[in-house]
Here is the input.
Amino acid sequence: MAAYFDDADLAHFGELEKHHPELWNLWLKYYGQAFEEGLLTKREKILIGFAVALTEKCPYCIHSYTSQAQAAGLTMEHLAEAGHATASLRAGVTLAHALVAHNLDKKTGM
Amino acid sequence: MPRPLPTLHARHVPLAEPAAQRATLHALGLPRRFEDHLASAGLAPLRPSRIEVLQVNVGRVCNQTCRHCHVDAGPDRREQMSRETMQHCLDALAKSDIPTVDITGGAPEMNPHFRWFVTEVRALGRHVMDRCNLTILETPSHRDLPRFFAEHRVEVVCSLPHYMASQTDRQRGDGVFEDSVRALQRLNAEGYGDGASGLRLVLVANPVGAFTIADQKGMESEFRRVLKARYGVSFDALYCLANMPIARYLEWLVESNNLRAYLDALVQAFNPAAAAGAMCRNTLSVGWDGALYDCDFNQMLDMPVASTAPRHIRDFDLASLTARSIETDLHCYGCTAGAGSSCGGATT
Here is the structure.
């Protein structure tokens, strides 16, 4: 059985177009425009992409956004800060979900 | 001061030889020759536009041995341009209207005739750029150079790969960042980089690894923000230069198993607009011994100008040099990838 994630996969990501060119190209246009520089700089958007890649645990995206970060002059120190910000928010999200338990206990507990 | 690493030359390794460097690139069997890419862009053979820069490499001696150095410069090198050869450069300038002299090395300031040469070029009314590694300005015999530069209105183009010490030191040696910041502060104290004095201070950033920089503008604003906030340093412009697969950077690419992927990325990113704006089209490069080349990279690979042109600065002839075709090989992909790379930064 071949590995599910192969670092050579990124090079033929575009082959997915053939299964539904119309939707593929709509997505590609949306993705391209969303990551263009606007009020946010290119570097800020790269870091957003990196954070999403981590939380979605996507090896392809982590590879791609690390390369983009290097090309933008960002270093592992920058990515480590972004990683910790991402991880700490994820921890906060987990804790915030404990509010459901907290609220139920407040309502039903004695 | 940083502890220097040995040069390829001092280690007597095969890659010290230019022919071995070119053979290493050719052995990759890249899918396309550089000349074919030029031809499909309508640029073959590549020819000069107008010679606007005389880039004079005054020697390979340096107080540093940076890991990406295409010159394989270092403290053990002995090649230095003589005063006689510098005079040939001055004679060539006097009979042409080349407006800019770009002095490089090694650490050009270590050439014993450096100050005399700068003074004479300025006396001819030409603009002078000095490619400075910054740490040389912190050595006892060169500490007064910022004042000398200011007095002679020399544009200082300094290497600083990153505003983070860890990155800079990884490429250029332990302690380089700290010394570099001190030198920049002393240049600022002379008026360099204040945007008003006309004393131009440019930073040059080479990537610290096997990748290229895609966003010179974004890098510049980050450098400006961080260097000002942390160290009070200001500058006029940042140039992002690609590392060339030559000499010590080539050795690192081979040893780190990054050579193939790096070259593939450069080939894939070939940009006709970057090729059209390549620095070899407006620059003439002079070696320490007076030999002429299309650029400093060709110089290090022992690729002299075409035989239709004079090959030594004492035989300088602007008309035949302008009519020559430019020598190219696989390393040229380093200047034509993406936004392009030149001694003046991105070319598109």
